[in-house]
Amino acid sequence: MRGILALLLLLSATLGYAQDSPNIRTAIFAGGCFWCMEPPFDKVKGVLETTSGYSGGHVKNPSYDQVSAGGTGHAEVVQVKYDADKVSYSELLNIFWHNVDPFDAGGQFCDRGDQYRAEIFYGNEEEKKLAEESKKKIEAELGKKVVTQIKPAATFFPAEAYHQNYYQRNPLRYKYYRFRCGRDQRLEEVWGKASG
């Protein structure tokens, strides 16, 4: 019995789940290319992992080819698993906003189409309230109507393995794509040099 308990403790420590922090939650955000949405969350203390995937549509277990072609209703999303004792949902919302163009209803940056929309998927009424308040604050701060949608969380489908942590496994291709897509240039136009 002790051996099993020790193994479980070791496994949980290896996975980054603190024994004294059972307040593990998930959040789902769509912000265009999911490759680009993992890095800003990954560097936040309290974020345990990010997973690229699809959500918000009507097709079960969609593939990348299906979603990227459009018509599934799904958006490319990132699921953020986090320790709510170390980072708040409000802080995650702030990171989300500063990594999207909240005025673009036709996609994000060079990625066009509904599958690349910016959207917040809330998991409960408190998250909905916080998301709506943050949207109003952004509108007041930037003086322009925000078109980013806020909707109830839908089933999350993880993307194919080759999409996960793409920016870490393919840093040169990732940086080239991000530059060519104009993401950082547009983020700086909207948010200033502190964006991203």
Automatic annotation (TrEMBL):
EC number of this enzyme: 1.8.4.11
Keyword Oxidoreductase: yes
Residue stretches making up the Peptide methionine sulphoxide reductase MsrA domain: 26-175
Reactions it catalyzes: L-methionyl-[protein] + [thioredoxin]-disulfide + H2O = L-methionyl-(S)-S-oxide-[protein] + [thioredoxin]-dithiol; [thioredoxin]-disulfide + L-methionine + H2O = L-methionine (S)-S-oxide + [thioredoxin]-dithiol
UniProt-recorded Gene Ontology molecular function terms: peptide-methionine (S)-S-oxide reductase activity
Origin superkingdom: Bacteria
Keyword Lyase listed: no
Keywords on record: Oxidoreductase, Signal
Segments forming a coiled coil: none
Active site: 33
Pfam families named among the record's database cross-references: PMSR
Function per UniProt: Has an important function as a repair enzyme for proteins that have been inactivated by oxidation. Catalyzes the reversible oxidation-reduction of methionine sulfoxide in proteins to methionine.
HAMAP family: MsrA (MF_01401)
Protein name: Peptide methionine sulfoxide reductase MsrA
Organism of provenance: Microbulbifer echini
Taxonomic path: Bacteria, Pseudomonadati, Pseudomonadota, Gammaproteobacteria, Cellvibrionales
Gene: msrA
